[in-house]
Design goal:
The chain has one domain (19-453). The chain has helices at residues 19-34, 37-50, 66-79, 95-115, 118-141, 145-172, 203-222, 227-244, 247-261, 269-286, 306-318, 320-323, 344-377, 382-402, 412-438, 450-453, and strands at residues 56-59, 62-65, 188-190, 193-195. It is mainly α. The longest helix has 34 residues, at 344-377. The strands form 2 sheets. A two-stranded antiparallel sheet has the order 1-2. Strands 3-4 form a two-stranded antiparallel sheet.
């Protein structure tokens, strides 16, 4: 049975804010508003991922989570910031930024049309702020390679802290973040296995969070001056994945490792991609069940719900006519536990319709495409190529995680920095080419290396 008020309505009737969380939130807001811009990303991310999402301020019947308050502080900082070199965003407003705007607008419109209720519209407005506001705040804060390094270091510190707390859950069976409220105090248990959840409140989210950051920590480790931070990040991320005791994080974790191992074969990836497609088509033709039924066979922990993931995808495909226009709100009637949209692609389809799903997939496609083009541009430069490869591997790990986890609130704030990092990486990669193109071929300056000209 679907839990009451899981989609909108309900929630805390009054403000629920632990004094420690309130102090941390206020400190975070002050740091966001007054720190030099380049240092703001660290406190923003740290407060977001160490404060339980259930901590909320209720004003006039509206719910303001810690995340939402921090996003609004970030938007204020952005609005009152001085004009920065290179414009508001690195590389200007690009196609991914425009697609993010379109995604947020379409998601809000379709959700409101589905329900046609005031409360649903209010909830949709809050989601709109979380989605577009959160993305543009991190896009504004992450502008160059040093910002990228600081961001990944902040994630390493978060993983180390949360990873230690999740290890403690395995020993004590109690979630220390639950003492603050807004997250379960008792650890989840399935088939006798403790599933630690930390500040996320959902063990799958906690594990996937660590898994998708593994490739970025591998890049950080490869930087001589950041090796300690990279090592601590790898340890924390691994602890989060293992203590979550869930198949989806493990799959994303393995995907990240496999992706990194493909680095020597980076020039042959087109063959591997098409080979994978051919194998899927062949399996679909010879299997008694559809090829997506393979999802039901995924069980890396002995207590996974792969069959549920398969049924989500299967029902979504079979009921295409129900949701393609503006989504579909009665999907919970499709079968047992179908209300639990623990698949990012299915969630986008059923809550936003075909247009929203296509926009989301296009964002991923353009991000992969931009990284591929950038990597060819820096061919021969190992350091730059490895950085771009790690970014692509992190995005691939996210895609694998999407098949068992629906990104909401906190998890969105794990994806947005990666998209911002990819924007920076792809923009910086093409700059030497643009600079060379601006210099006439017959100019004496053209024969001088760009490093010397700089």
């Amino acid at each position: 049975m679907e839990p009451g008020n899981i989609r909108f309505g309900g929630g805390a009737a009054d403000t629920m804010m632990h004094p420690l969380v309130a102090v941390l939130m206020i400190l975070g807001v002050l740091l966001i508003l007054f720190l030099p811009r380049r240092y703001v990303i660290a406190p923003l991310l740290f407060v977001v991922f160490t404060c339980p999402l259930g901590q909320v301020v209720v004003a006039g019947g509206l719910h303001f989570t810690v995340l939402r308050i921090l996003i609004m502080a970030g938007l204020v900082r952005w609005a009152f910031s001085k004009k920065l070199p290179g414009g508001v965003f690195t590389g200007g407003l690009n196609s991914i930024d425009r697609l993010m705007v379109l995604w947020a607008v379409m998601a809000f419109i379709t959700f409101s049309l589905q329900w046609q209720e005031t409360q649903a519209t209010i909830k949709g407005a809050g989601d709109f702020l979380d989605l577009l506001g959160g993305y543009f705040v991190v896009r504004f804060l992450i502008r160059d390679r040093e910002d990228v390094r600081r961001t990944v270091k902040a994630f390493a510190a978060i993983c180390l802290v949360v990873g230690v707390c999740m290890l403690n859950e395995q020993v004590t069976h109690r979630n220390v973040f639950g003492l603050l409220g807004g997250a379960p105090l008792e650890s989840a248990i399935r088939d006798g296995k403790i599933r630690a959840q930390g500040a996320f409140g959902v063990y799958i989210d906690a594990g996937v969070f660590g898994a998708i950051l593994l490739p970025l920590f591998a890049w950080l480790w490869s930087q001589a001056k950041s090796r300690v931070a990279g090592t601590l990040g790898l340890i924390g991320a691994t602890a989060m994945v293992l203590t979550s005791n869930s198949s989806t994080p493990l799959l994303a974790f393995v995907a990240g490792i496999v992706g990194l191992c493909f680095w020597p074969l980076r020039d042959r990836m087109r063959t591997f991609r098409w080979g994978f497609v051919v194998v899927l088509v062949a399996l679909h033709l010879v299997m008694k069940a559809p090829v997506w039924a393979l999802i039901a066979r995924v069980d890396l922990t002995g207590s996974s719900s792969g069959y549920h993931r398969f049924m989500l995808v299967d029902n979504c495909i079979r009921h295409f006519s129900d949701w393609w226009l503006i989504g579909y709100k009665d999907y919970d009637a499709w079968g047992w536990d179908m209300w639990d949209l623990s698949n990012q692609f299915v969630a986008k389809a059923l809550t936003g319709g075909l247009v929203t799903l296509v926009i989301f997939i296009t964002i991923l496609s353009k991000s992969f495409g931009g990284l591929g083009t950038a990597r060819k541009t820096v061919e021969g430069n190992f350091a730059e190529g490895w950085f771009l490869w790690c970014c692509g591997t992190a995005l691939f790990a996210n895609v694998v995680g999407f098949f068992g986890c629906s990104y909401m609130a906190q998890m969105q704030m794990a994806l947005f920095p990666l998209l911002a990092i990819i924007n920076v990486a792809t923009f910086e990669a093409v700059q030497p080419v643009i600079e060379r193109a601006k210099i006439p071929s017959n100019s004496r300056l053209a024969s001088i290396p760009s490093s010397v000209r700089a």
